Amino acid sequence: MPSQPPQPIPLWELARARCLPLRQVMDQPTLTWIAEHRPTAVAGTTFIADQPVILVPDATWFAAQQADSIHGIRHNARVCLLADLLAAHHELDPDQTLALRLAAAVHDCRRRNDRTDPGHGQRAAVWLSHHRQAITAAFGLNLSPRMVAAASTAISLHDVAYPAFSRTQRDAYRRAACLTDLLKAADCLDRYRLPVTRWWPDTSLLRVQVPDWMSRVAFDLMLHSEQARLDGASDLDALTHARGIVFHPHKETRLGP
Predict the structure, then answer these.
(1) Taking the alpha carbons of 94, 184, 256, 223 in that order, is the dihedral positive or negative?
(2) What is the pLDDT confidence band of residue 255, given thresholds at 50, 70 and 90?
(3) Whole-number percent of the chain with pLDDT over 70
(4) By the 8 A CB rule, do 42 and 215 touch?
(5) For residues 81 and 160, is the Cβ–Cβ distance under 8 A?
(6) Is 135:155 a contact under the CB 8 Å cutoff?
(7) CB 183 within 8 A of CB 155
(8) Which of 47, 192, 216, 236 is a good FRET partner for 227, with 20 to 30 A between their CA atoms?
(9) Residues 39-49: tens digit of each pLDDT
(10) Averaged over 57-63, what is the pLDDT?
(11) What pLDDT is recorded for position 105?
(12) Is 221 in contact with 82 (CB distance < 8 Å)?
């Protein structure tokens, strides 16, 4: 009887052993582990009638085969969903909302690995600036060069901690503070996908107010979309499925596994 090939070691076990690879892809044991460690703070029921806008980046926009990694297509699209909710909560005007959606949907597209990868925000910002017309057209966005520049600034700063800003970065931040703060917040909320609980969202590090219910939304968007992808759905179908579960227009929806 032929022997079975060895099963890959789950991300959560690799994280515990402090030997995570450069490229990290969600696996079923890790997603199950995440579901079993659901924080008490994100338990409960939330009713949200309006479905946020979803922008799904193209796989060819990602560097180094990162499209299916934990910083790939689904992460960027979920950050876009969360950013859209934050834009509504903070009453951004239509142009700012479009710019925030754009920034969120491509903020990690030029990552080279799934570790810290310093400078990936700046690389993505430069890439967006060079491909502004093609990217906005692909998303069906009508944005002025000024608002695309603001989105690029937010992207360039999203991976830099506020205390670590250089003088140049502080000057750039002042030109796009609102978009930067909200992009950082949306990105933070999708950290429940990471295989160590101490890496999960810490909203005390943010400069904007995040409603308590958004943590529940973020957890379940991640859980349902990642499970659907593992079950064989495409990225778009997995994300659409998760959005349909979490944002139900007619009745209260239980958020949780």
Answers:
(1) positive
(2) very low
(3) 92
(4) yes
(5) no
(6) no
(7) yes
(8) 47
(9) 988 876 555 65
(10) 96
(11) 98
(12) yes
Q: Can you read off the two tokens belonging to residue 85?
A: 């909710």
Say how many residues make up the chain: 257
Please give the pLDDT value at position 42. Answer: 83
Cβ-contact 182, 208 below 8 angstroms: yes
What's the rounded Cα separation, in Å, for the pair 217 and 219?
6
The model's pLDDT over 112-131, given as tens digits with 9 standing for 90+, comes to 999 999 999 999 999 999 99
Amino acid letter, 248: H
Q: What is the 3-state secondary structure (H, E, C) of the chain?
A: CCCCCCCCCCHHHHHHCCCCCCCCCCCHHHHHHHHHCCCHHHCCEECCCCCCCCCCCCHHHCCCCCCCCCCCHHHHHHHHHHHHHHHHHCCCCHHHHHHHHHHHHHCCCCCCCCCCCCCHHHHHHHHHHHCHHHHHHHHCCCCCHHHHHHHHHHHHHCCCCHHHCCHHHHHHHHHCHHHHHHHHHHHHHHHHHCCCHHHCCCHHHCCCCCCCHHHHHHHHHHHHHHHHHHCCCCHHHHHHHHHHHHCCCCCCEECCC
Whole-number Å distance between alpha carbons of 220 and 214? 10
Model confidence at 252, in pLDDT bands (50, 70, 90)? very low
Full-prediction pTM beyond 0.85? yes
Furthest C-alpha separation in the chain: 66
Residue 21 has pLDDT above 80, yes or no: yes
pLDDT mean across residues, the chain: 92
